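Provenance

Sequences were taken from public entries as deposited. Structures were produced by running a predictor on each sequence independently, with no templates supplied. The record for NarX-like N-terminal domain-containing protein from Roseobacter cerasinus is shown for reference.
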Amino acid sequence: MQEMLLKNGNMSVLATAFAMSFLVWPTPGHSGQITAESNARDRMNLAGRERMLTQQLTRNACFVMAGVAPDRFAQRTQENVEDFNRVLVGLRDGDAELGLLPETDPGVLAALDDIEALWEQFRPAAQQISAGDFHTIPMEQLVSLNMATLKQMHETVMAMADIYTNDNMSPDLLKTVAVAGRQRMLSQKVSKEVCFKIIGLDGLGASDLVEATIQDFDDAMARLMTGSEADGILPPPNEATLAQLQVTNATWQEFKQLVADIQGEAEVPAETKIRLSNLSDQVLKEMNAAVQLYVQ
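Predicted structure for NarX-like N-terminal domain-containing protein:
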């Protein structure tokens, strides 16, 4: 297993190739009074962001295994852990800086308990791998728990959307924010799946899985750009939001082409692995800017 996981590592090439800067996405801050409306809006945004972190965290740990700037990706894995921890606590107990009131709904609190139980196993597995421990057990935990945590987090987000519709937030707006926020996760999930293929885990990075994730993103983007009454998705509320979605989509198309090129390569050059990370993070950055326009 260890030899398979270390396939394609080339640190000497990466030392000079990694000149491009990484995109850092800090945890959103909050100023002013927290109202029921702002709490619902920020809770949906941040809970949706937790979905993304499950995939970015796994992608970053995978790049450590692939020998892609391991020190830098190990640091980013730790940053992901800290971000996820803080928001998970804030979703339960409240966090004034994040704009969150304490959660009171029993169903959501129970769902957060389930996420915490998964996270207590998922987190150390990712940290072990990012520290260079490529043994079978943490690898198997990373593979299984990233998707289990994502699934539970997504179900929690959708439950929140139902609960908070009465807090001066229309169900269509909450659904739109949930769908837009999910695009952030999908950008990282694609790069994770491609990384799994790069390190030799072909079943976890199979072309059909990658294509399904890409199609999911494409379908949602089409609905976001025009609105979908049947799906409860609002059209862009203003020209700025539409323009940002168009910028996101242009970056996404470039990323999709890179993924297609990688899928056809037996050996992926170090520079291409770095570009995969940079472009997926650029899609994430642009999509996050669009989400902020919906929730501001």
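The mean pLDDT is 86.
The CA atoms of residues 147 and 196 lie 14 Å apart.
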